[in-house]
Design a protein that fits this description.
Strand content: 25-35%
CATH superfamily of the largest domain: P-loop containing nucleotide triphosphate hydrolases
Bound molecules: adenosine-5'-triphosphate
Number of helices: 12
Helix content: 25-40%
CATH architecture of the largest domain: 3-Layer(aba) Sandwich
Order of helices and strands: EEEHEEHEHHHEHEHEEHEHEEHEHH
Radius of gyration: 25 Å
Strand order of the largest sheet: 6-7-8-3-9-10
Number of domains: 3
CATH topology of the largest domain: Rossmann fold
Number of strands: 14
Largest sheet: 6 strands, mixed
């Protein structure tokens, strides 16, 4: 459905996309994941035909984005990060206008607008002025716009950016529903977003592709990087106990308050592991820490494993790319990449030319 080969994009002397290759197969929901400035929007705009590339080859549904740009663009519904909407138009009117621009034949226009509004869940605001819509609704109108010509492929740039948790949940449900009929490539800088919405993930940073694989494999890399334990009572004793647990490197007080009823101190203690602790040892260390506190008679209010930040996952992937395979998670990712490289190579070999 999408084939990207050695894509490069320069803005003047700045390399925004640096030799990126990947494939997206039909029926998948794929997350394009990377921190700010990674090159996500640039890549998605090139794939949607809105921006030229410096070099490389991109095919959308078998159409070369440069040599058959009209066919390629007709196969894509693109929702940019900042959806350009006309505030003085009503939703229905706007979508009919967009359908016309996208070449939907007049006879089919109304039906396709209705269909897009239904899929994007905006029927109830069909006659509302766009300028009066909430951010969540405007985002969904943007989604209806991407859907109005009924393209097989949807490219959504940060579809949940700036939405509140309720709106994010609605957009996620919407995307899950769309995947029955459309292939979806969406960008985000939030790892949990990809974990919840996508089958596969492509990770980029600083314009370079770092990893590509099943979301499950990337998820494995997100290990408990630290532990927050909230205790009540003798906080100093709790600190001493935790510092004595093998595998715990540092413990510090993240916060401390007085309990309103007992007047005891309630503190959240932040524990980090000794370097390069593999997953199984982290689990064992958490169990040992809790057991040691209970054994010392310290009351525990909450135990929370703190997931590694996206940057840490990126750091592991980058180390892995450099060939250092020192941690269990890193090895997993290396295997994932090796398999994917083979998958991609096989797919290339078997793809019709
Ligand atoms: N029109 C432009 N001219 C010059 N540099 C640009 C232009 N657009 C983007 N860049 C630069 O290219 C790099 C990639 O930008 P891009 O917007 O593609 O990243 P992104 O991953 O989408 O980031 P974000 O999540 O912040 O939107 C950044 O360093 C950005 O500053």
């Amino acid at each position: 459905m999408i084939s990207v080969s050695h894509l490069v994009k320069h803005y003047g002397s700045h390399v925004a996309v640096d030799d990126v290759s990947f494939r997206v197969e039909k029926g998948q929901i794929v997350g394009f994941l990377g921190p700010n400035g990674a090159g996500k929007s640039t890549t998605l705009r090139i794939l949607s035909g809105f921006l030229g590339m410096t070099s490389g080859k991109v095919e959308i549904c078998g159409h070369d984005i440069e040599n058959a740009s009209l066919e390629a663009r007709r196969s894509v519904g693109y929702m940019p990060e900042a959806v350009p909407l006309y505030p003085e138009m009503r939703v229905l009117e706007y979508l009919a206008f967009r359908a016309e621009l996208k070449g939907v034949p007049r006879a089919r226009r109304r039906a396709q607008v209705d269909d897009a509004m239904e899929k994007a869940n905006v029927l109830e605001v069909a006659t509302t002025l766009i300028g009066k819509l909430s951010k969540g609704y405007r985002q969904r109108v943007g989604m209806a716009d991407a859907l109005v010509a009924n393209p097989p492929l949807l490219i959504l740039d940060e579809p949940t950016a700036g939405l509140d948790p309720n709106q994010i949940r609605q957009v996620r449900e919407l995307i899950a529903g769309l995947s029955k009929e459309h292939t979806v490539l969406l960008s985000t800088h939030i790892l949990s977003e990809v974990e919840q919405s996508c089958d596969r993930v492509i990770v980029i940073a600083k314009g370079k592709l770092l990893a590509e694989g099943k979301t499950l494999d990337i998820r494995k890399m997100r290990r408990a990087a630290a532990l927050d334990i909230t205790v009540r009572g003798d906080v100093q004793a709790a600190l001493r106990v935790l510092r004595g647990v093998p595998g715990v490197a540092n413990v510090n007080e993240a916060s401390k308050v007085k309990d309103a009823s007992s007047k005891d101190e309630v503190a959240t203690l932040h524990c980090t592991w000794t370097k390069k602790l593999p997953d199984t040892d982290i689990q064992g260390t958490i169990e040992a820490a809790v057991a040691a506190l209970v054994g010392a008679g310290i009351r525990i209010r909450e135990v929370k494993a703190v997931g590694s930040a996206l940057e840490d996952v990126f750091a592991e992937l980058t180390r892995d790319a450099a060939g250092t395979r020192d941690a269990a998670g890193t090895r997993d990712a290396a295997n994932t990449r090796d398999e994917n490289t083979r998958d991609a190579a096989n797919a290339r070999d078997t793809a019709p030319s």
